[in-house]
Amino acid sequence: MGKESIVAEAVTLLKSLISIPSLSRQEEEVADFLQEYIEGAGIEIHRKGNNIWCIAPGFDSFKPTLLLNSHIDTVKPVEGWQRDPYTPFMEGDKLYGLGSNDAGASVVTLFMVFRELSQKEQPYNLIYLASAEEEVSGKNGVESVLPDLPPVTLAIVGEPTGMHPAIAEKGLLVLNITARGVAGHAARNEGINAIYKAMEDMAKIRDYRFPEESPILGPVKMSVTQVHAGTQHNVVPDSCTFVVDVRSNELYSNQAIFDTVKSMVNAEVKAHSFRLNSSRIEPKHPVVRRAIALGRAPFGSPTLSDQALMPFPSLKMGPGESSRSHTADEYIRISELEEAITLYKGLLDGTEIRG
Questions:
Q1: What is the DSSP-derived secondary structure letter of residue 78?
Q2: d(Cα 202, Cα 195) in Å, to the nearest integer?
Q3: Torsion angles phi and psi, residue 127, rounded to 5
């Protein structure tokens, strides 16, 4: 199949995906469609929940295994769309629609490349996985599938990076911190105001700097993002809970950050989860070197993806731009789809993935 035909098929497939609402945890219809589409191409499908994957013919347990992964779920449409987010709309080189950039473009281009690479013997086994619940870091997404896959040596995670390789990614730790006081009447000099106690801890978090700074991802970043306290204006609040959004670098585990914060504040600290740690791949890994040889620039990504749930080396790289994700009138350029197919093939065809 010629290059123009492959790009045309990718565009047609992406339009179909855009047309099917696929909010996180509601991906069944789009998973059904994609399963039927891939099976229609004569490829055997495996499915678990709303995750589907296929393994290239000739699997050899003595070879390393390369996983090509992106996600089929989207966020909810934000306000400000000038057109129906579920109706694909072409304007020049741009294809508009919810999930076109994040991450439908990666879903379709990785599949096209999977099919192309599968047509000849590679020095690795090849798996394509279209997964669910990425936007909510759900437990029924990629994390639920990995135990059912052969051992993976390396993953390419399709997310909008302008087809530059993200060789590290910040993790996420969300903390609920609760300060305790004593209730009292606001008109009298009584009670212990939990808000004031919480403010002292917020100031400590605001001013603290973790000593180790990553040359790729920079420092750990902590931000107080929500505050909840009080029942009515004339009652001194006896509790105040605030939320801290922590973006970790590869030098600190989420558990280590939690322990540091807990020792720093006087209030009670609870973590939503420790699952989403920072991830990285060695800059000298063969696939990174090959990306550089193709003129791509490695960088550290501040945004989270399913890389955080992968206990093996992974590289985040895909068509589109992160700045378009989760925005009104989201779009992908057709030229970006074409570039992605070319670069993915150049990156992966015959390459060494051990590292």
A1: P
A2: 10
A3: -125, 135
220: phi then psi, degrees, rounded to nearest 5: -65, 135
- What 3-state class would DSSP assign to 48? strand
Do 38 and 31 meet the contact criterion of CB atoms below 8 Å apart?
no
pLDDT in tens, 188-231: 989 999 999 999 999 999 999 999 999 999 999 999 999 999 99
Q: Is the pLDDT of residue 132 over 80?
A: yes
CB atoms within 10 A of CB 36: 10
Q: Are 170 and 278 in contact (CB under 8 A)?
A: yes
Measured between its terminal Cα atoms, the distance across the chain in Å is: 32
**Residue 137 predicted with pLDDT over 80:** yes
Sheet holding 331-333, edge to edge: 89-91, 94-96, 331-333
Residue percentage of the chain with pLDDT more than 90:
97
Measured CA angle at 337 (ends 345, 332), to 5 deg: 150
State residue 352's pLDDT score.
Answer: 87
Return the pLDDT at 355.
54
Structure tokens of 111? 């599949």
Is the pTM here over 0.85, yes or no?
Answer: yes
Q: Give the span between the Cα atoms of 172 and 100, in whole angstroms.
A: 25
Distance of CA 272 to the CA centre of its chain: 18
DSSP string, 86-115: TS-EEETTEEESTTIIIIIHHHHHHHHHHH
